[in-house]
Design goal:
This protein is globular. A hairpin with a 5-residue loop joins strand 1 and strand 2 (78-87). Strands 1, 2, 3, 4, 5, 6, 7 and 8 form an eight-stranded antiparallel beta sheet that branches. Residues 15-43 have low confidence and may be disordered. The chain has 204 residues and is mainly β. It has one helix at residues 15-37; strands at residues 52-72, 78-87, 89-91, 93-102, 105-114, 120-146, 163-188, 193-198. The chain contains one helix and eight strands.
């Protein structure tokens, strides 16, 4: 019997053979993770049946791209949203709050970060928002651009023929939004605090 066909001692692993088989899968997973972090692939998941609040005293970004999309919950219900894609976002602070019904009553799930602890940063921050309020300044803006041609934020493009908008060098003060989902890469949440309380305060 050839050496390559010899039986390995008990408890030993053919590492070279395992590497040859496993390497393509590892590379594929790594590539997908990298693309998701860069916003090339959207993180697709069913949203919960509850929207949540997002607030910040100030948000800045190199670029913004947006178009209308539909989020869906597990019951199949659709939720129309404005997908907001922000390239290299910086927030002075952030507050996220959701109300959740429990046998004990309505519980407020609240997350805060930033402020005195330092700014919050994220790459390719994507917020599926049903509304947005604040005082905004855009360095450049394009309204009515075909969503399939958006190029201000990497990976943020809609379907051909859909209404889209994009802007460069944006600054929004006193941000308030109700959203169905939020994703991002390289999130840095300084001074992160998370609390769950019955009838607790929300962000606004």
């Amino acid at each position: 019997m050839k050496a390559s066909q010899e039986r390995l001692p008990e408890g030993r692993t053919a590492w070279k053979r395992t590497a040859v088989v496993g390497l393509p899968a590892v590379l594929a997973v790594g590539a997908m993770a990298t693309m998701m972090a860069q916003g090339v692939l959207a993180a697709s998941f069913a949203v919960s049946g509850t929207s949540f609040q997002v607030a910040s005293s100030k948000l800045t970004s190199d670029g913004l791209a947006s178009y209308v999309e539909t989020d869906r919950s597990l019951d199949g219900k659709g939720h129309p949203v404005s997908l907001l894609g922000l390239d290299q976002a910086t927030l002075n602070d952030i507050c996220q709050a959701a109300e959740v019904k429990t046998p004990l009553g309505t519980v407020t799930f609240k997350l805060t970060a930033g402020g005195d602890a330092g700014k919050v940063t994220a790459s390719n921050l994507i917020i599926d928002a049903e509304d947005l309020a604040g005082d905004a300044r855009f360095g450049t803006v394009e309204l009515g651009r075909d969503a399939s041609t958006l190029d201000e934020t990497p990976g943020i493009r809609g379907e051909k023929g859909k209404f889209g908008l994009q802007a460069g060098n944006i600054e929004v003060a006193d941000v308030k939004s109700h959203a169905w989902s939020a994703t991002g890469g390289n999130f840095r949440l300084k001074g992160l605090k998370l609390g769950v309380s019955l009838g607790g305060d929300k962000c606004f």
